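1st attempt posting a full record on here, be nice pls
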Amino acid sequence: MKNRGFGHYLRDTRKKFSLSLRKLANLTDLDPAYLSRVEREMSPAPRREIVAKLADALCQCAELSPAEKGRLRRELLDLSGHLSNEGELIDDLSHRFADRLRDMNIPESYVLEAIKKVPLDEMRKVMLDGEPLKVKMADEITHEELDACSSVGEEVIALQPEDSLTSHNSPSDYIKQHYGEFNSDKSQVKPKERFRAGLNAYIEVEGKLSSSQQEQLRSIAMLIRSILEE
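the predicted structure (as tokens):
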């Protein structure tokens, strides 16, 4: 949005959600005339409690994900000047950095891991567009690229979420680590019967066969062999 004032942001968001001024006023028990003045920047931003009510009402009228609701609330609190203490500012920075990653279609498990590993000063540089944010899968990065990053002082942070298959050395390592989650009961493995029907031909049947069925399949195998040898 072009104008970053609280009132303009509130108005643009309300219109984006197809919400009338009167409807928003009813949902928040506020005077429509007062809301109009706020949106036109003719009144100062409301108290924190009022901003929270406006955020709740907007979220109620739009189908937003939890992350999108959090983003909207933080934006309103920030523009109204109610993000003041250090804890809130750090929390806001982390959430905004997470939103940036989500906008880049980064899987949620990697987003959460990034919040834990990326230093706050690096997040701040990225959010102020002072430092480019490059995201690549591990198997897409070459040793030359890593060396190039190191030579110019760029930090490379590897993300390996605990629940991700890529956090293990190989699929077999993953299976070993999660062995109990797989059905390994050998008694449930179905037996297989195999009948040779030529030099490079076989009939393979899964499951237990009766003597009669085995005899019939041997006859069929012999028939196939004779056809292949013609």
